[in-house]
Structure formats: structure tokens, C-alpha cells
Design brief:
single chain, alpha+beta, five-stranded antiparallel β-sheet
Length: 183
């Protein structure tokens, strides 16, 4: 009854039964049904059942590994993005800005303790006329009262590109800046 099985399946069945002798009755029933089957397709179907029974389930492991790789990639992207923003803030030039408008922003990731906002600002840099710009950032809820329209902020301005504005959360720990005086 066991002899006409493909050799690889036979070897797997023997190894499986050595590990799990309690499965002997089920395997004997399947082999008997296979021997009594009238068609090749029915025999192949039972062989597939036997193969699935003795083969380790790799599909779940592949899915788990894929999810872990995806999560690791997302974590790496978030970490890289935070490092890039920190480096940009370190080399930025501080400026005073008036919040003209606040709208929902478009951020990749946010949290329950922050909101993604797009701030339209009137930027006042030392030695330069005021200009309008905008920035989009995840802003912690604790700073929401400080970023309302009409509020003054200290922001970072990229020295190479004055249109690239950066929200400087470190500046939120001190009182708001004094509005610049008109010449």
C-alpha cells in the first residue's frame, strides 16, 4: 500500500510518523482510500493531502517574515527622516515667523499626540525683506496653542534655500519671539 508512493513522499511520511506516531491511524486511512481510488486524479488528490500533512507550513512563516521586513523598513525610514530633519535644523538659520494660516498637512506618519499641519508663514529674516512660505510637520498637541494664526514662532530657514522652512520644536520651550519692528 505504501510501495507505490513517490519515494520523496514515502520518506517524509516515515519521518513524520517517527515524530508523531499518533498520526498513524489517519495516514493509514488516507493510504487505504488512495489504494481504493478508481482514478488517477483522486490518487493525486490524496497524495497532495498526504504531502500537505507532512510538509511544514511555510506560508505563515513567509508572511510573518514579510511583515517584519516591512515594519523594519518603515522604522528605518522614520529614523532616517528624523535624522535628516535634525541635521537640517542644526545647520538652519533662525528666523521669526508670523503664522498666517494653519491647515491639515500631508505627513507619512503621525501619532495620537501630534497633528500633521501645514503652516503658511510670513518669514522675517535678519537683513532680508519679509516673505511668505510654508512648512508641513507633525506638531505635538502641547504646542497647538503656539501655532495658531496670529502667533509668532522661531523657525529654522535653510541657508541654501530660503523657501525651505523647518519647524523648530526646541524653540517652543522658550516664550514666543518678539515681533520684528517695522523700519
Amino acid at each position: 500500500m505504501h510501495d507505490d508512493l513517490p519515494p520523496a513522499l514515502r520518506a517524509r511520511l516515515d519521518a513524520f510518523l517517527r515524530k508523531k506516531p499518533q498520526a498513524q491511524e489517519l495516514i493509514d486511512k488516507l493510504l487505504a482510500k488512495r489504494a481504493a481510488s478508481a482514478s488517477d486524479s483522486e490518487r493525486q488528490f490524496i497524495e497532495k493531502m498526504l504531502h500537505d500533512l507532512v510538509s511544514p507550513a511555510r506560508k505563515a512563516a513567509i508572511i510573518v517574515v514579510a511583515i517584519l521586513v516591512f515594519l523594519l523598513g518603515v522604522f528605518a525610514l522614520i529614523t532616517w527622516d528624523a535624522a535628516q530633519e535634525e541635521a537640517a535644523l542644526e545647520r538652519s538659520v533662525p528666523a521669526v515667523a508670523l503664522v498666517k494660516r494653519m491647515d491639515p498637512g500631508d505627513c507619512w506618519v503621525s501619532s495620537r499626540t501630534a497633528r500633521c499641519l501645514r503652516l503658511e508663514l510670513e518669514v522675517h529674516r535678519d537683513g532680508a525683506p519679509p516673505y511668505t512660505g510654508s512648512l508641513t510637520d507633525n506638531i505635538d498637541l502641547e504646542w497647538m496653542s503656539r501655532v495658531q494664526p496670529g502667533s509668532w514662532l522661531t523657525i529654522g530657514v535653510d541657508p541654501d534655500d530660503p523657501n525651505k522652512l523647518l519647524f523648530d520644536e526646541r524653540a517652543m520651550a522658550v516664550p514666543p519671539p518678539t515681533p520684528p519692528t517695522s523700519p
